[in-house]
Design a protein that fits this description.
Number of domains: 2
Strand content: 15-25%
CATH architecture of the largest domain: Up-down Bundle
Structural class: alpha+beta
Order of helices and strands: EEEEEHHHHHHH
CATH class of the largest domain: Mainly Alpha
Helix content: 40-55%
Number of strands: 5
Largest sheet: 5 strands, mixed, barrel
Radius of gyration: 18 Å
Strand order of the largest sheet: 1-2-3-5-4
CATH topology of the largest domain: de novo design (two linked rop proteins)
Shape: elongated
Length: 220
């Protein structure tokens, strides 16, 4: 058996496997996105029961196999309980993790996406900014990190000055200050339209959690 490996990361998704196990996808700082099997994690007395659920953030001890890892231990520092306690916030959180999964790859440095995901989830329980603005900002920065965002958009003279300023801020602000602003409805509508355009251009996947969010907004 290989030597144990400690990785810092977050559980993006978890599904049952076999009678008592779980198959989890982790976004890690050191190894990017990895798949791991948590043996016995569905047993009520398992020390991996809570650690192998989405949103769990901490240090995971794994063994590397040929095609997947085996999760044997976890030291969880954050479960994002406030996010999970609110249905709408949880839906947004699941969407952000789906996007992180989409952009992440194995054996590539996952620290940038992991840090973005962490600060975004921390912003969700707060009253400001609005969750839809958080979604827009997250999508933009995820594209920036993937090298897809056209920076010249922030200089588009057809946009309102407030929208251009917001774009410039979102594209360059440090993560700890990324969600420290709000926008007037007209400026946000313009910002949303810009990002929707780039989503259609660059993203070739449907996200289940986003469909749920859109359905919630339509029926509210």
């Amino acid at each position: 058996m290989s030597e144990p490996l400690k990785v810092s990361g977050m559980v993006l998704s978890a599904v049952p496997f076999g009678d008592y196990d779980k198959r989890v996808v982790l976004l890690t700082k050191e190894r990017g996105k990895i798949t791991a099997f948590a043996r016995g994690a569905r047993r009520q007395n398992s020390m991996l029961l809570a650690a192998s659920t989405p949103f769990a953030f901490g240090v995971f001890t794994v063994y590397e196999g040929r095609s997947a890892y085996t999760l044997v231990r976890a030291e969880i520092s954050e479960y994002f309980t406030e996010v999970k306690a609110d249905f709408e916030a949880a839906c947004y959180g699941c969407y952000f993790m789906e996007v992180a999964d989409y952009y992440s790859r194995e054996n590539l440095d996952g620290s940038a996406m992991l840090n973005l995901l962490y600060v975004t989830l921390r912003a969700l329980p707060k009253e400001q900014p609005d969750n839809e603005l958080i979604r827009c900002v997250f999508e933009m920065r995820a594209m920036v990190q993937n090298g897809e965002y056209p920076y010249e958009t922030a200089k588009d003279a057809s946009l309102q000055e407030t929208t251009r300023y917001a774009l410039s801020y979102i594209l360059s602000a440090p993560l700890q200050k990324l969600y420290s602003f709000t926008l007037a409805p007209s400026a946000f509508a313009e910002l949303r339209s810009v990002q929707d355009h780039f989503n259609r251009m660059h993203i070739d996947r449907k996200f289940k959690s986003l469909d749920i969010l859109k359905s919630m907004k339509t029926n509210s």
